[in-house]
Amino acid sequence: EVQRLNQQLEEKNGEIQQMINQPPYEKEREILRLQKSLAEREKAQATSDVLCRSLTDETHQLQRKLASTAEMCQHLAKCLEEKQRKEKGNSDDQIPTERSNQVFLLLLYNEPSLQALICNLQDENRMLKQKVAHV
């Protein structure tokens, strides 16, 4: 292990000596190459940051939409229950409010169009994550 490390150290020392012995224009070229590489990485990082912010904003927007939809579903479930109570006039035969809300939400989330929307959003999210990883 020590011999291997010593060999690596010697290789690095050799590289340093080569850099020192290079003519000034070679050093300038290397500096420019490194600066260009740094600029490209900074640009890629900036693009990645923008995409991440965009994804974060979209995620928050979708969370707000979901919360709003869930609230509306609960409201509709309560309205439906009240309407059924009025029509039957007998609350003993009715499902309790909490239970009817759960049933209504299960029906809503099992609706094929909602499932398709969720799948589409998941696919879009996966594609955006791949784009971010690529950048």
Characterization of this structure:
The protein has 135 residues and is mainly α. The chain has a domain at 94-134. Helices cover 90% and strands 0% of the residues. It contains 4 helices and no strands. It has helices at 2-21, 24-88, 97-109, 112-134. The two termini are 38 Å apart. Residues 91-95 have low confidence and may be disordered. Residues 1-24 are annotated as: Disordered. Residues 1-14 have a biased composition (Basic and acidic residues). One of its GO terms (cellular component) is cytoplasm. This is TNIP2 protein.
Q: Layout of helices and strands, plus pairs?
A:
Elements: H1 2-21, H2 24-88, H3 97-109, H4 112-134
Helix pairs in contact: 2-3, 2-4
Give the beta-strand count. Answer: 0
Overall average residue pLDDT: 81
Largest sheet: none
The helix content, as a percent range, equals over 70%
Using the CA coordinates, give the radius of gyration.
31 Å
> Number of helical runs?
4
Strand content: under 5%
